[in-house]
Structures are given as structure tokens and as C-alpha cells.
Design goal:
The complex is a heterodimer. By secondary structure, chain A is mostly helical. Helices cover about 80% and strands about 0% of the residues of chain A. In chain A, helix 2 packs antiparallel against helix 4 and helix 3 packs antiparallel against helix 4. Chain A starts with a helix and ends with a helix. The radius of gyration of chain B is 25 Å and the shape is elongated. Classes of the chains: A mainly alpha, B alpha/beta. Chains A and B meet through helix 1, helix 2, helix 3 and helix 4 of A and helix 1, helix 2, helix 3, helix 4 and helix 8 of B.
Chain lengths: ~100, ~450
């Protein structure tokens, strides 16, 4: 991937992100934040390659801790978001 | 299909799921599905990465993943809703920290293989700086939200921060322009980012907290995105910048709700300190009791409840629900007025009230609730201060002048539940407390509301 293509992706994704989130009700501010935070744990896939590449002890150790941190971020983020959102839907079901 | 094709295709599917998932998270009805889509995208991304041929040994991966899943799930399932801001800050920090470690690890590997370029060096430099800043800033925010860290030093010392920023920039230039192989500068840069995060986060507290939490969220996305430039990985770039952009939107919403610029929040001077509350208000405050409030509520037709951080601290949300149900049982119309920066993170009050099973249709945001205060017989302010301070509207010299507030003083009677007269985080006197139609009820939010409900049911 050339630098220009990388920048193209970056720029388009930024604009897309701005468009997607422009009108979000306050009720969803926290779930949106923790959900998007979990997505930013995508750095996990880089961590997996770093930890598994067997290059040197240093890079493997760094990669290993990155895997741990990123996995906590990803799993914790999605689970807690789900927990929060289910508080909304549970009530809906009970009423109907 | 070759392995590389499988991976790229998997990444494309994951990117689409992230986009659709984020879109879903923006609407109440589609939000749970949106979150699930994001998680599915992540699972696909991880699975296709595992077939990557540069991964030679799997035992560390398995151990790392197992530890991460265990800790992450445990934290997410055990945490109380009142501790949600801390948890969000913690996860943010972990994300930023992971990005730094990945960038450092890959940068070292690429260097030792002799494949480094200016692009990779610059990307690694930016990731180190932003990621380390996210990590340390989040840890400071975590400490503050837990109440363990109360020190607000460095405020009003912009020189310190500008200096750190300059030093960091110098390192970045050094790595990028002159030394694509420099490992020492990478570590220095990580240290610089770490320091910068601390210096930026330590002075922040109170009503500024939601801005910082939202900003840290954005930064964790940026760090992931720049990691993608180091690894030449399109999915990291796309997902990271999506999160960065959405975090930025949220930060902007929070700043607008305070009528302050982001720079002012981060680098603004200290608000002038105010002495103890008793001196400002003297004996002009009218205090009240649970019984008196109950009597007011009995003849009320319309009640608005305005929650603030005090409700979160006292864990009063369930007591508030009981009060609401008691009032509704005698046909009183109850609604909640929620300021965008009430609490310590965006949407904090909404989460707490949802936990107490209060329907979000009763929760009105600032624009919806403000015109209704005129019709309210009683407005109960629970542990909120700056967001209901009329000085923001009336006093052009006030440090919070121009900040949009909830016009609770329009209602017939305002009851303020507060533990003491201590000024809010901003340290600004609140003329609401001495207004003619305001009654002060000195109590812990939870105890106080329980007392009022008791008085109501007994009468």
C-alpha cells in the first residue's frame, strides 16, 4: 500500500466517521463511546502479528503485552456496551 | 484464493461491519445490533489475522488472548453502573497502550530487518506520542474518577505543557527526518507522550471530565489508525480513524454544551478560587426539610428532576426511581432534565437512570426541557451545580458566562438537594441558591430522596 492510498483511506474514513455520528441522542453517548472504544481495540490484530512473529525476545514480549491490553479493551468494551444497551431493551420488553 | 486474499477480504468484511455497527450505535432501536455487528467484525478480523503466515508461534497468542478475555469479561460484567466512567477511561487507556506497544514492537522489527522508511518512522513516532498520551491521560482520569486522585496541579501553567509539546515535536522530527533507525528516540518519544498525557489530565476535573473522556476516546482511535500506517494495515487505518472521528464529534458536542473551546478546557487558566460557601451566601439561603418538600410535592402537578454528579456519587438513582413512582402513583407528571455535561462522562446520567429502570422517554435533554420549566411546580435539583447556575446567563463576568444551562429558576419552586454549600468544581458561586423561589435541602442525595419519599407515603 502506498502512502497516498493509506492517506486516502484515512481521510475517507474520517469523513465517514464524522457523518455517521453527527446526530446521536444523549442517551446513547456512553454506549457509543464504549462501543467505538472497543472497535479502536482493532490494534489487537497488529498485536497478534507482533507477538507471533518470533522476531526477537523484545518484540515478542512487547507484542504479548499488547495482545493482553488490546484483548481487555476489545472484550471488555463490547461486553460492557452490551450490558448497558440491554438495560434499555429489557425495560422495553417488560412493558410491551 | 491465496492466504493474503483471504485476509484482505476478511478485513473488508470487518471494516463494513464496523461502519454499519457504528451507524447502528447512533439510534436507540438499532444500538444493541450495532454493538453486536462491531463485535462480529472484530472476531472476523482476529480470525483471519491468525492465518497470517508471519505468525510462527501461537502459544503466546493463546496465553495473551486468554488473559485478556478473562480480565476484560470480568471487569465488564462485575462493574457497577456508577463506576462506568472509570471503566471507560481504563479501557481507553489500554487501547492506547496496546497501540504504543504494537508500534514499538513492529518498528523495532522492521528496523532490524532493514526495511524502515521515513513513512514508517513518522507513523511510529506519532503513534508513540498519541498512544502514550492516551494511556497516561486515561490512567490519571481513572484515578480522578475513583476519587483517589484529587490534586489539580499544573492548572494555569501552559508554559509547562507547551514546553513538553515542543520537546515531543522535536523528537518526532528527529525520528522522522533524520534517524529512521533511531530506537532511542522512540523510547524518548513514548516517555514524552506519557508526560504530556499526565500534564494535560492532572488539572482536569469536575464538569470538564466529559470533554476529556470523549477526547481520550478519540485519541485511542487516532493511535490505532497511525499504527495502521506503521503496519501497512488498511483495517487499522479505517477502524481507527472512524473511532477518532466519532470521538471528535462527541468531544465537540461536550465542548459546545459548556460553551468552551477544547483548547480552553485543556489549557485554560485556573478559575479564580472562591472561599468557603458560607461566606458568599451568608444567611440568604432558605433551607428546608423532607416534610416540607413532601407537602410541596403533594400539591404539585408537574415535577422536573435535574440530576447531577451528586446523584452518581451517592448512588441515588434507585431512590430517585422510587420517588418518581410514588409521585406518578398520585398522578404527578414527572420528567428528568439532563444537561449534556452533567456527571463525569458523556451520557453519564442517562446510563445511571437506565440502570434504575427509568424509561428514557422521561429523560429530556436541554433543548426539550428548558421551555417546560415555566410550567413546573417543583424542580428538584439533585447534586448538580454549575449546569443550573443562572450566572452563566446573567453575569457576563462569570467564568462560565455563555454556557448553556438548564433554566430551573423558571419553575415555581426549586428544591436543591446538596450536602453542603461548597461551590462546584468550577469554584463559582451559584445565585440560584439564594433566589427567592429556591429551597436548600442539606442532605446526602440518596438519604435525602428516601426521606422525601417516606414523608410522601406517610402523609
Amino acid at each position: 500500500m502506498t502512502l497516498l492510498i493509506a492517506f486516502t483511506l484515512f481521510t475517507l474514513a474520517v469523513f465517514l466517521g464524522l457523518e455517521l455520528i453527527s446526530k446521536v441522542p444523549a442517551t446513547l453517548h456512553t454506549p457509543l463511546m464504549s462501543g467505538s472504544n472497543a472497535i479502536s481495540g482493532i490494534t489487537l490484530i497488529g498485536a497478534l502479528v507482533s507477538a507471533g512473529a518470533d522476531h526477537s525476545t523484545l518484540t515478542t514480549v512487547l507484542g504479548f503485552f499488547a495482545v493482553v491490553l488490546a484483548t481487555i479493551n476489545v472484550v471488555g468494551g463490547f461486553v460492557v456496551t452490551n450490558r448497558m444497551l440491554s438495560m434499555f431493551t429489557k425495560r422495553k420488553k417488560r412493558e410491551s | 484464493m491465496s492466504r493474503a486474499n483471504v485476509i484482505d477480504l476478511g478485513y473488508l468484511v470487518a471494516a463494513v461491519l464496523f461502519i454499519v455497527g457504528l451507524k447502528g450505535l447512533g439510534r436507540p432501536r438499532t444500538a444493541p445490533r450495532g454493538n453486536l455487528m462491531g463485535a462480529t467484525g472484530m472476531l472476523i478480523a482476529v480470525l483471519v489475522t491468525l492465518v497470517d503466515q508471519s505468525i510462527l508461534s501461537y502459544q503466546f497468542l493463546a496465553i495473551g488472548l486468554a488473559i485478556g478475555i478473562a480480565i476484560g469479561a470480568l471487569l465488564a460484567l462485575r462493574v457497577q453502573m456508577t463506576s462506568m466512567p472509570e471503566l471507560v477511561a481504563l479501557f481507553n487507556g489500554f487501547g492506547g497502550g496496546a497501540s504504543v506497544l504494537v508500534a514499538a514492537s513492529s518498528f523495532i522489527e522492521i528496523n532490524e530487518l532493514g526495511n524502515s522508511t521515513g513513512q514508517i518512522a513518522v507513523a511510529a513516532a506519532v503513534t508513540s506520542l498519541v498512544g502514550a498520551m492516551t494511556l497516561s491521560g486515561s490512567m490519571i482520569a481513572f484515578g480522578k474518577l475513583q476519587g483517589r486522585l484529587t490534586w489539580n496541579g499544573f492548572r494555569g501553567l501552559p508554559i509547562v505543557r507547551i514546553l513538553v509539546a515542543l520537546i515531543s515535536l522535536a523528537f518526532a522530527v528527529q525520528i522522522g527526518g533524520f534517524q529512521p533507525e533511531g530506537q532511542l528516540s522512540l523510547w524518548l518519544l513514548i516517555a514524552g507522550g506519557f508526560l504530556l498525557g499526565i500534564l494535560c489530565a492532572v488539572p482536569i476535573g469536575g464538569a470538564d471530565m466529559p470533554v476529556v473522556i470523549a477526547l481520550l476516546n478519540a485519541l485511542s482511535g487516532v493511535a490505532a489508525s497511525t499504527t495502521g500506517f506503521v503496519l501497512d494495515n488498511s483495517l487499522l487505518i479505517i477502524a481507527g480513524s472512524l473511532v477518532g472521528a466519532s470521538g471528535l464529534v462527541l468531544t465537540q458536542i461536550m465542548c459546545k454544551a459548556m460553551n468552551r473551546s477544547l483548547l480552553d478546557v485543556l489549557f485554560g487558566a485556573a478559575p479564580s478560587a472562591v472561599d468557603s460557601g458560607d461566606d458568599i451566601y451568608g444567611d440568604q439561603v432558605t433551607s428546608t426539610s423532607a416534610e416540607e418538600i413532601a407537602m410541596l410535592l403533594e400539591i404539585a402537578e408537574r415535577v422536573v428532576i435535574v440530576p447531577g454528579y451528586g446523584m452518581a456519587v451517592a448512588q441515588a438513582q434507585h431512590a430517585v426511581r422510587e420517588l418518581m413512582q410514588t409521585l406518578q402513583a398520585s398522578d404527578v407528571e414527572v420528567s428528568f432534565g439532563i444537561h449534556p455535561v452533567a456527571g463525569r462522562m458523556p451520557g453519564h446520567m442517562n446510563v445511571l437512570l437506565a440502570e434504575a429502570e427509568i424509561d428514557y422517554e422521561h429523560l429530556l435533554d436541554m433543548d426539550q426541557v428548558n421551555p417546560t420549566f415555566k410550567r413546573a411546580d417543583v424542580t428538584i435539583v439533585i447534586g448538580a451545580n454549575d449546569v443550573v447556575n443562572p450566572a452563566a446567563r446573567n453575569d457576563p463576568d462569570s467564568p462560565i458566562a455563555g454556557m448553556p444551562i438548564l433554566d430551573v429558576d423558571d419553575s415555581r419552586t426549586v428544591v436543591v438537594v446538596k450536602r453542603s454549600l461548597s461551590p462546584g468544581f468550577a469554584g463559582i458561586a451559584n445565585p440560584l441558591f439564594i433566589a427567592d423561589n429556591t429551597l436548600l435541602y442539606f442532605s446526602d442525595a440518596r438519604e435525602g430522596i428516601l426521606e422525601v419519599t417516606k414523608a410522601l407515603t406517610e402523609s
